[in-house]
């Protein structure tokens, strides 16, 4: 097994064993980090509704037991009461939390708070914002509770109003005082009947007036032990929208951050953290057979056999004398790649399993050293003095149009070497070439280098940012000859107004390698993309068109970013040739790689669009943009087939209505795994812009297979409202609280559904998939703000509209 595992480390060097610690089993906890959600809702102040919760003071005090108003299940226990602590937490039940341990003792030490490995006494805690809190700058500090709705969909809302974090010493060994960072804020806990969901909802906050500094807050939920916790974590200089969730407690050394806050990064009004219960295994086994080794010269890779019940893994890495860093997001499968490391450096790496219930296993620790970078020694020209006279070719022609502001020849030559100019009729073995990218425009970010030898494959091409190197081979894998017969080699994503040095090296026994030409030019500004008209279809059959690169777009209606490299899109059979994808050998099954990364190659026709996640660095992005004229009336629907067999790579669909200048922050759709080419549920696009851009953005996991799309369609939905059909349908309950049910007749059993708010914004879309005879469809609205919504169902020429009130 180890041999096969090593073979799957596609860029692996030596592998070192990880020290394995004893097996550990973990108690059940019915909330898990994977079920937690960071989203936005609406923060609504309770005003005078409900009951004010009295405490003796606003500093380090507990209330009497308060009624939830219904049975709430948490950690396998049913609760009807809670006790509020002024420091931003509640304890379920009638027992008060310990005031002495009710908040982190220091501003930068969350492990001393209630959700910590040292605090076993306080259990069943819900902490929306646990710090040493006092009255806020707005005055009127108050605590309040109200239960709303009707059984079985009631909601208990608990509110801390107008509070502020108090100044605290930085740490037990540092006397520096961290001043108040949030001078005034309000927040709520919402407990949901039946679902047992928990929400933390935050209102707008006011920044403190002192120095901006990091302060650690404890935010999360805790069951019957510190290990039965789910905690929120983010950096202090990060938006609250970036908060992620991990298995606690905060004492765990893998959690470098608490929920860090800073006065320059305040919560956005309505920011909501949602904790959803889910089944957890009784035990969770630690991974075994772990190895760690080199993936590339700046990354390491951990391979292991997962233990039963593992859902994700906490990974940290530390260079000698450096700061411990945590790999985010938490990986979910083996192998795990840690990128962005320093070449030739020793790292200590830890791996820890996270169970479905949120508990964690024992630490597995090991170390490995990254390899050195690909460095070419100082080139040895036939005449180091640079006195050789080179014969310049008269037939050198830029390969991508006219010069767009780049300096292609001349300029300062690295000391001791001749500048070959643009072409060389009879070359020495090693020569230099230099060019400068333009300051702006297309020519500033891309350049083409063409090397055409008399014997294909008789030169290697390296590039560097300075004349001193180091030089990295481009165009193909290190140690092999560039296939010059394949056309121009492309250096992409270059820095504007920057000089680059290119070193062309002949190899073999001969001193020279015959005539070859070198051309480096800034790309001419290409023609702008053509906006497709509707309806539009694309099955990616090709051959693809060359715009900024070779065969880089399906048609002139598309653009591809980056133009080349593993994370560049291509027709599924062309990426290795036209984009320089790696691991072409893995297209054919072998004993070590029995399953190629792209087995199913199309859903219709003979080809598809493919993203080479198998070869791309982890978290690398690649965007394929479709330009469409959507100026006509009517909603539009986007459909396509999608495949992504395994891993945590993904595809997001974004929308721009201004020609790609900006895209919506929230994707129209995010797609994760799909073992076969499957039809994506229709995506409704509400655009009437003549300059609409639809972006297909793939994210790599450097995993075992690739992402593909095929059979793309954009249609205009035309339908008329059918009042008679609407009369046959019922919607209950209305007003709705957590959800509502809709009876659907046969005519609408496969309709597309769209829920819009009072502003006309689409808040939910789905495709019904009911029996042909019709049936009942459930709609979850627990995450929506209270208000009036419009539900539209469309099928063929039929349109039904229903009014829904959400409370």
TrEMBL record:
User: Gene3D superfamilies given for it?
Assistant: Immunoglobulins
Listed Pfam families: fn3, Por_Secre_tail
Q: Does the keyword Signal apply?
A: yes
Q: Which residues form a coiled coil?
A: none
Keyword ATP-binding carried by entry: no
Entry keyword set = Signal
Q: Which CDD domains match?
A: FN3
- SMART domains on file: FN3
Task: Look up the signal peptide feature and give its range.
Answer: 1-27
Q: Which segments constitute the Fibronectin type-III domain?
A: 286-374
**InterPro entries, alphabetically?**
FN3_dom, FN3_sf, Ig-like_fold, Secre_tail
Q: Which PROSITE patterns match?
A: FN3 (PS50853)
Q: Would you tell me the protein name for this molecule?
A: T9SS type A sorting domain-containing protein
């Amino acid at each position: 097994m180890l041999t096969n595992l090593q073979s799957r480390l596609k860029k692996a060097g030596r592998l070192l064993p990880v020290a394995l610690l004893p097996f550990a089993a973990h108690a059940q906890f019915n909330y898990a980090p994977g079920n937690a959600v960071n989203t936005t809702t609406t923060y609504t102040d309770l005003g005078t509704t409900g009951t004010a919760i009295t405490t003796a003071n606003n500093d380090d005090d507990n209330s009497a037991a308060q009624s939830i108003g219904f049975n709430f299940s948490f950690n396998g226990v049913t609760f009807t009461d809670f006790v509020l602590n002024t420091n931003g937490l509640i304890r379920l039940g009638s027992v008060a939390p310990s005031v002495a341990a009710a908040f982190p003792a220091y501003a930068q030490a969350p492990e001393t708070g209630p959700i910590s490995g040292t605090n076993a006494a306080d259990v069943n805690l819900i902490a929306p914002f646990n710090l040493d809190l006092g009255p806020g700058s707005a005055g009127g500090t108050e605590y309040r509770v109200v239960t709303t709705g009707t059984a079985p969909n009631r909601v208990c809302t608990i509110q801390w109003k107008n509070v502020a974090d108090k100044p605290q010493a930085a740490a037990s060994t540092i006397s520096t005082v961290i001043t108040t960072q949030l001078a005034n804020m309000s927040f709520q806990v919402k407990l949901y009947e039946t679902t047992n969901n928990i929400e933390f909802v935050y209102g707008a906050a006011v920044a403190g007036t002192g120095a901006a500094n990091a302060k650690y807050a404890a935010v999360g939920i805790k069951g019957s032990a510190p290990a039965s916790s789910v905690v929120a974590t983010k950096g202090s200089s990060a938006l609250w929208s970036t908060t992620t969730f991990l298995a606690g407690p905060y004492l765990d050394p893998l959690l470098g951050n608490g929920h860090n806050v800073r006065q320059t990064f305040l919560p956005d009004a309505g920011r909501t953290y949602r904790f959803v219960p889910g089944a957890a295994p009784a035990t969770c086994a630690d991974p075994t057979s772990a190895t760690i080794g080199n993936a590339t010269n700046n990354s390491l890779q951990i391979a292991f056999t997962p233990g039963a019940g593992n859902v994700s893994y906490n990974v940290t890495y530390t260079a000698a004398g450096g700061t411990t860093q945590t790999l985010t997001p938490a990986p979910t499968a083996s192998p795990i790649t840690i990128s962005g490391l320093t070449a030739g450096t020793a790292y200590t790496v830890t791996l820890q399993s996270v169970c479905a219930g949120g508990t964690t296993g024992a630490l597995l620790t090991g170390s490995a050293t990254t390899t050195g970078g690909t460095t070419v020694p100082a080139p040895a020209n036939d005449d180091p003095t640079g006195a050789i006279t080179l014969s310049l070719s008269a037939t050198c022609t830029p390969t991508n149009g006219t010069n767009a502001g780049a300096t292609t020849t001349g300029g300062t030559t690295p000391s001791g070497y001749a500048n070959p100019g643009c072409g060389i009729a009879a070359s020495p073995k090693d020569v230099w070439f230099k060019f400068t990218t333009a300051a702006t425009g297309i020519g500033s970010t891309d350049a083409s280098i063409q090397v055409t030898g008399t014997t294909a494959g008789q030169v290697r091409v390296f590039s560097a940012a300075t004349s001193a190197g180091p030089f990295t081979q481009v165009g193909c894998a290190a140690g092999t000859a560039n296939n010059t017969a394949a056309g121009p080699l492309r250096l992409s994503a270059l820095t504007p107004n920057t000089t680059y040095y290119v070193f062309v090296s002949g190899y073999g026994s001969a001193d020279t390698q015959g005539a070859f030409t070198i051309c480096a030019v800034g790309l001419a500004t290409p023609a702008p993309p053509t906006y497709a008209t509707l309806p539009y279809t694309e099955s990616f059959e090709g051959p693809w068109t060359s715009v900024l690169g070779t065969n880089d777009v399906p048609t002139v209606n598309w653009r591809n970013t980056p133009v080349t490299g593993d994370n560049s899109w291509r027709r599924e059979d062309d990426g290795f040739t036209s984009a320089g994808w790696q691991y072409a050998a893995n297209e054919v099954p072998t004993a070590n790689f029995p399953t190629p990364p792209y087995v199913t190659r199309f859903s219709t026709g003979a080809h598809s669009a493919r993203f080479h996640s198998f070869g791309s660095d982890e978290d690398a992005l690649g965007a394929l943009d479709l330009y469409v004229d959507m100026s006509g009336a009517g909603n539009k629907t986007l459909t396509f087939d999608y495949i992504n067999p395994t891993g945590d790579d993904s595809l997001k669909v974004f929308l721009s209505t201004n020609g790609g200048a900006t895209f919506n922050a929230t994707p129209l759709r995010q797609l994760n795994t799909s073992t076969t080419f499957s039809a994506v549920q229709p995506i409704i696009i509400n655009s009437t812009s003549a300059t609409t851009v639809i972006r297909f953005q793939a994210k790599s996991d450097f995993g075992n297979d690739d992402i593909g799309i095929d059979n793309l369609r954009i249609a205009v939905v035309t339908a008329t409202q059918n009042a008679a059909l609407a009369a046959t349908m019922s919607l209950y309950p209305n007003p709705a609280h957590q959800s509502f049910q809709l009876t659907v007749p046969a005519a609408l059993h496969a309709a597309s559904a769209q829920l819009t708010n009072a502003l006309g914004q689409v808040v939910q879309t789905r495709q019904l998939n009911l029996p042909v005879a019709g049936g009942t469809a459930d709609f979850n609205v627990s995450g929506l703000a209270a208000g009036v919504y419009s539900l539209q169902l469309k099928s063929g020429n039929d349109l039904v509209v229903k009014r829904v009130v959400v409370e």
